[in-house]
Each structure stands twice: as C-alpha cells, then as structure tokens.
Design goal:
CATH superfamily of the largest domain: NAD(P)-binding Rossmann-like Domain
CATH topology of the largest domain: Rossmann fold
Number of strands: 8
Number of helices: 12
Low-confidence stretches: none
Structural class: alpha/beta
CATH architecture of the largest domain: 3-Layer(aba) Sandwich
Number of domains: 2
Distance between the termini: 34 Å
Largest sheet: 8 strands, mixed
Strand order of the largest sheet: 3-2-1-4-5-6-7-8
Radius of gyration: 22 Å
Shape: elongated
CATH class of the largest domain: Alpha Beta
Bound molecules: NADP nicotinamide-adenine-dinucleotide phosphate
Strand content: 5-15%
Amino acid sequence: MNFGIIGCGNMGEVILKGVLEEKLTLPWQVWASDVRRERLNYIKNTYGVNVTNNNEEVVEKSSLILLSIKPQEMHSVLAEVKSAWQEDKVAVSIAAGVKIARILQQLGEAKVIRVMPNLCIKVKQGMSAIAFSNKVRKEEKEAVRRIFSSVGEVVEVEETAMDAVTAISGSGPAYVFYFLEALVEAGEHLGFSHSLAYLLAFKTLQGAVELLKEGDDPADLRRRVTSKGGTTERALNYLKEKEFKAIIRSAVEKAYLRSRELSES
Ligand SMILES: NC(=O)c1ccc[n+]([C@@H]2O[C@H](COP(=O)([O-])OP(=O)(O)OC[C@H]3O[C@@H](n4cnc5c(N)ncnc54)[C@H](OP(=O)(O)O)[C@@H]3O)[C@@H](O)[C@H]2O)c1
C-alpha cells in the first residue's frame, strides 16, 4: 500500500507510527507532507519515510491518503491537490466536522472515508468510528480498518452518527480528565498534598478500568462496592440527588450540538 499523509502533526504521526509498527506498509512506501520543514526532518529521521512540502506530490505517489490537517485547512489543501487526484485514490479524513459530501464537492469523483478517532490512539487505546462514501471497495475498507486497529478499536457507523461519536468518544477523554481533576481537588480539600491526592485518585481510576476490563457491568460493580449505610452510599446518594447523570447527559448533548453546528458551518 502506498500510503500518503498530509499534515504530520499529533494525529498524523501517531497513525504513521501505528501503521509502520504493524507493518501495514513499509517506510519507503509512505509519503508524508507538512508545512513545517523541521517537522518533516523529524518525521524523516524518526520513521525513514519519504517527506515533501508539496501536498500534490503526496497524492501523486499514494493510493490511500490520510488527511490529518485541521478542519480549517481542508478547503485549501483539497484545492491544492485536486488536479493530482484520480478516481481510484482513497481519501481518509480525520478532520472533525468535515462531512464526506464537502470533500466530494471539491474532489469530484472520489472515494472518501471519514474517521473520528480520539486522543487515546496515542497509547494504542483509541476509539475510532469510520464511515464510508459509496464507491469505497471492500479491500479499501479493510485497509482503513486495519490502519485504525493498529492504534485501538474500530467501529463502523453511518456518517449521520459522527456528531454523536464526537460527543461521546471524541471529546470523552477530556471528560475523564476533568473527573480526575475533580477527585484530586477533593483529596486536596481533605488535606492531602497534590501529589498524594493525585496518586490516590489516579490509581483508583486505573484500577477501576482494569476491573471493568474483566467484563462486568459498571452498575453491578458499583452496587457490589456500595454497602448499605456506608461511605460510598453516602457519596453516591449525594451525586444522585444532584442529578449527576443528567448533568453528564446534558454536557454530552452540548458537545453533540456543537459538533452539528461545526459540521454545518
Ligand atoms: N487531537 C485529537 O484528539 C483529534 C481527535 C479526532 C480528530 N482530530 C482531527 O485530527 C486532525 C489533526 O489534528 P492534530 O491534533 O494532529 O493537529 P496538528 O497537530 O495541528 O496537525 C496538523 C498538521 O498539519 C500541518 N499543516 C497545516 N497546514 C498544512 C497544509 N496546508 N499542508 C500540509 N500540512 C499542513 C500543521 O502544521 P502547523 O502546525 O505549522 O500548522 C500540523 O503539523 C484535525 O482535523 C482534528 O480535527 C484530532
């Protein structure tokens, strides 16, 4: 597979690393571009792939092209590469809120795959949702599933579900970080130093995730650690009284609506 990457920032580099580590392609078959020369030097020296600051060249040399630029760069990048684009090439966009139709509008006859990964692909624990345009062939779908499986889990969705995906797994890591911050601050409030409060809270989060990995339902696990009249029950009752679940639901809904707004603008 001749693999192209336009935009070698955070996400582009992580995906490149995953693809090479899983040997889905070889360094000499990869063409990567970016606007910053020092970034390209770093990518070349670290991964041994071909680099260029010419996006058109990436398209000419590759059959499957990852578009890992910011959403606001998409229009100008597509305009730049349009003349080099051929029908058999596959565009894989991870740009948040950029619809398949918008890419097709600029590229004309093209195969487009839209993916919404999340930050956790950095540690190969990502959650990526994939949607395909009409003309994408079975083996091309499989190639893209393998690319994103190299950095975590993959699920196929209808494109209309992308805003909801963004609200849950796309923005989700930040909700978890925020919960951890709150638990740490609560520990500090009870008199612990920041580092001790962080250790107590972080190991609790990590241990709880490990327990969940055994497959139990979170509600069952919660009930099992909540003894009648105990400390956990007192805290959870307070969370229920304050409608913790309703707050989370509304927050996720806000993210969903914002994602819709962005993809329609
Ligand atoms: N980060 C996440 O958790 C996450 C999750 C899901 C989806 N995404 C999507 O992933 C995409 C990339 O995000 P990121 O966090 O990796 O951003 P990033 O680190 O800014 O990466 C984008 C890279 O593209 C370069 N670039 C800018 N204009 C270019 C052009 N015309 N041609 C070639 N390269 C160009 C940027 O250079 P400069 O820095 O010099 O501009 C930068 O190195 C975004 O569309 C975002 O919506 C991100």
